[in-house]
Specification:
alpha/beta, binds ligand BES, four-stranded antiparallel β-sheet, 457 residues, 2 domains, globular, Aminopeptidase, six-stranded mixed β-sheet, 21 strands, single chain, binds manganese (II) ion, Alpha-Beta Plaits
């Protein structure tokens, strides 16, 4: 391990330069204008995996963006770790809020600022460099496979079929993922659960054309007024979601489990200060940590319609639209919740309007065990490099493919992420701490070591 760590130390600057090159390619999966950049990014990841020492590296095309695969099989009798991550990033709007351009990585306050710096290019690159360090110092203790996709931020719709079609190739003992965050740099943690997701787009149509709001206003249903009312009615005065059956499958935690969760350090005044809000908001009877970790939610992500240009235009619009996401917790099913939403949304619409619901991508929630070898190995690895045992936490975000890995490949995942909430994932000025980048590279070889040792026992 000494050699591996000193190799990492000697090549720190080069590792960062290579990450910068990766961050400069605008791999926005949601926007078809970046199709070629997605291929360029996949090719770059391929080249770096090859240089690091991986075999059989390929860019696998899909009906969407390509998946990069590579492996190093030392001995079929040794355990195999499958590293999953994503090279695609979220869109960068609103561009004017970025201090420096999103695809021109810059260092300020010991952080790399760029879209994808943390989510997930920075975290994926830690794995490629940790692998290189193990290869170059002859210390890789087991087999490794890499699967780095380009459609996570748009729902991984082609990765599921790819997994199903390549079960043998992807066979592994554990899936290792760095795409989540920790509590703080001096409080390491490991996510042991992720929320699922149902995502829908709705439209409300009133009259067949935009109308004069004076001539018709008051006599014809306004689709924006109606949509606002329908959305508002989907939470009651306790901020419970009113869709019938919505909570039916939710696993309620025991008092002991909730007490255990409450032990994780959380500073509510720092939280409010960071967000510049006077108070938090959410479901009555639950703490902030519980509201994001173990409770489902319904949020409008975007809403539009009518006139939003300069000045005023007195118009009664014909249509209104909204994008709505629901975060799900164990044992909720994305498919079932989407159906419950659709039925309810349609049922509460007054006869004066027509509504449509279009489901987008979704994914089921996951919980990962804490009594498994992989959790133990990740916990030991972080304890070694941070000097503190990581706290198990429940992450509020979603990585929809993780539930599918378990269902289709029968393989459990371990979520050893090194980001922080303050990294601003999906926000303007996303960043990743240099501390976190290098700490990740140092911790990963320990995971491989401990996991292999534990498997042998
Ligand atoms: N890496 C995030 C998920 C995440 C972030 C989990 C922080 C836990 C802590 C991932 O890239 C992501 O953004 N997922 C999307 C889902 C997707 C279907 C768009 C999400 O959670 O919104
Ligand atoms: Mn991610
Ligand atoms: Mn993301």
């Amino acid at each position: 391990m000494e050699n591996t760590l000193s190799f990492i130390n000697q090549h720190k600057d080069r590792f960062l330069e290579e990450l910068f090159a990766l961050l400069r390619i605008p791999s926005i999966s949601a926007d078809p204008a970046y199709k070629q950049d997605m291929i360029t990014t996949a090719e770059y990841v391929k080249k770096k995996l090859e240089e690091a020492g991986a075999d059989k590296v390929e860019v696998c095309s899909t009906p969407g963006h390509p998946i990069v695969y590579g492996e190093k099989i030392l001995d079929p009798n040794l355990p195999t770790v499958l590293v999953y991550g994503h090279y695609d990033v979220q869109p960068v709007v609103p561009l004017e809020l970025w201090t420096t351009p999103p695809f021109e990585p810059t260092i300020r306050n010991e952080r790399v600022y760029a879209r994808g710096a943390c989510d997930d290019k920075g975290q994926v690159y830690m794995h490629i460099k940790a692998f290189e360090a193990m290869m170059k110092t002859n210390s890789l203790p087991c087999n490794v496979k890499f699967m780095i996709e380009g459609e996570e931020e748009t729902g991984s719709s082609n990765l599921g079929p790819f997994c199903v079609a390549n079960k043998e190739k992807l066979k592994s003992d554990v899936i290792l993922i760095s795409d989540t965050s920790m509590i703080a740099n001096d409080t390491p943690s490991i996510d042991v659960g992720l929320r699922g997701l149902s995502y829908v787009e709705v439209s409300v149509t009133g009259p067949n054309r935009d109308l004069h709001s004076g001539v018709y206003g008051g006599a014809v249903a306004n689709p924006i007024n109606i949509l606002a009312k329908m959305i508002a009615s989907m939470h009651d005065e306790n901020n419970h979601i009113t869709i019938p059956g919505f909570y039916d499958d939710v696993v309620e935690l025991s008092t002991e489990e909730r007490a255990e969760m409450a032990k994780a350090p959380f500073d509510i005044s720092a939280y409010k200060k960071d967000l510049e809000v006077a108070d938090v908001w959410g479901e009555n009877g639950y703490s902030v940590i519980e509201r994001t970790g173990i409770r489902p939610t319904l949020d409008v992500n975007g809403i539009w319609g009518g006139y939003t240009g300069e000045g005023s235009k007195t118009v009664l619009p014909s249509k209104s639209f909204a994008k709505i996401s629901m975060r799900l917790v164990p044992n909720q099913s994305s498919e079932k919740i989407t159906k419950l939403f659709t039925d309810y949304f349609t049922s509460i619409a007054p006869p004066s309007v027509r509504v449509e619901v279009h489901p987008h991508h979704g994914g089921d929630p996951v919980v990962t065990p804490t009594d498994s070898l992989e959790f133990q190995a990740a916990s030991m690895a972080m304890e070694k490099t941070f000097g503190k045992k990581p706290i198990p936490t429940r992450g509020g975000g979603s990585i929809p493919i993780v539930a599918l890995f378990e269902r289709e490949l029968g393989t459990k995942s371990v979520l050893m992420g090194f980001g922080l909430d303050e990294d601003g994932l999906h926000s303007p000025n996303e960043s990743y701490g240099l501390f976190n980048f290098y700490k990740g590279i140092e911790t990963i070889p320990y995971f491989f070591r401990y996991y292999t040792d534990l498997k042998k026992q």
